[in-house]
Amino acid sequence: MIAGKVVGSLVSTRKSEKLIGNKFMIIEPLRHMAADTSQIIAIDMIGAGIGEYVIVAQGSAARIGCDMENAPVDAAIVGIIDDGGLFEQE
Fold it and tell me: What pTM did the predictor assign?
């Protein structure tokens, strides 16, 4: 899992049937968790908003975390961060 900040939303009118009705958010991983990517798209099943810090699961954990084991999901917001020392390094 990684921690990141929601920086935007994404609208897709044409997509896999298994993704219909879901919200997609653009996440910027915190600098020390970014690896080789500056932004990722994550499905949002918990109602995160732009500007909030979130926990993102990736890979098969993302599909399990959002109860969509058979959907083409690679990243899912699984929590909203209320407080933590992660932000001191930003």
Answer: 0.83
What number does CATH give the domain 2-81? 2.40.50.220
Between the CA of residue 87 and those of 13, 19, 52, 79, what are the distances in Å?
34, 32, 12, 16
Task: Identify each DSSP E strand in 1-89 by its residue range.
Answer: 2-10, 23-29, 40-44, 53-58, 75-80
Report whether pLDDT(63) > 80. yes
- Percent of the chain surpassing pLDDT 90: 47
Q: Residue ranges per domain, the chain?
A: 2-81
